[in-house]
Amino acid sequence: MATPPLRTAVAMAATEFGDPGKVLAPLTVDIPAPGPRQVVVQVRAAGVNPIDGKITRGLFGADPATLPRRIGSEAAGIVTAVGDGARYFAPDEADRREICVGDEVIVYRAVGGYAQALLADDSAVHAKPAALDFPVAAGLLLTGVTAADLIGAVAVAADDTVVVHGGAGAVGSIAVQLALRLGADVVATAAPRNHEFLERLGAVPVVYGDGLAERIRDASVGPVTVALDTVGTDEAVDSSLALGVPPTRIASIAAFQRADDGIVLLDGSGAEGKRRRAEAIAGLIADATSGDLIVEIAKTFPLTQAGAALDELAGPHPRGKFVLLP
To answer: What is the pTM (predicted TM-score) of this model?
Structure first.
């Protein structure tokens, strides 16, 4: 039986810019009927990501005219209404198929995903296999496509020895798995509490801190040829350069202050990055469904505790994704 569409929904929005726990508030919003190539999705889970906190804090612009600003970059749920011509996302237009009421879907990138329901353009809607649970589906794609972009930007291959800085993080752990599946040898930096997890994935863990380059060199089976940085510290970049990795094979999603070093900086805005990310989506969903890709859920929070979730995510926190459950 199809889920009836909501006419109004609770959504979390920034009422001003600042710390999420102080400025995110629940609002009741109208859910319009979908227009052409749009759908309405009743949200079952919403992924919590650092970028959501940065938006809330005004780090990407703090124009008060944009307030209240709804937050949330990815979600998963059930389609409750479909506009004319709505089709699932696919890199090849010929592969797009019809979206139907009752379909279980992933929405990425979502606009205002921290909500009981949302309106989405069909270009952001992806079919969710029944075997993939909603929290994992909601936490998969933002980090997954970012990791795939890192891997593709420096063309990781079977003959590479790769160091992943921040290997136990949400992006880093997927980058570790993708590199291993390509046949590369992987060394990953992490806190000691996460070393057993990285070993289970198949990587060699090392602790960060003074002497990092030497520890990575000692742990590697051969010369390190690629560095993937998810943390953005000078230590990560400096140790990679000290290991002799060419700057063109050091890719970072965070070390934008090191642009003068000639490393590859990725924010998803370039044409090639967009292509790599789009082409990775189907494989990420399939691999997470089969269990070939491990996506850990660290904690779940009620929707109205989104601010607390983002505040906790900004500091020391458990390994894995945070997810909101409306």
So the answer is: 0.96
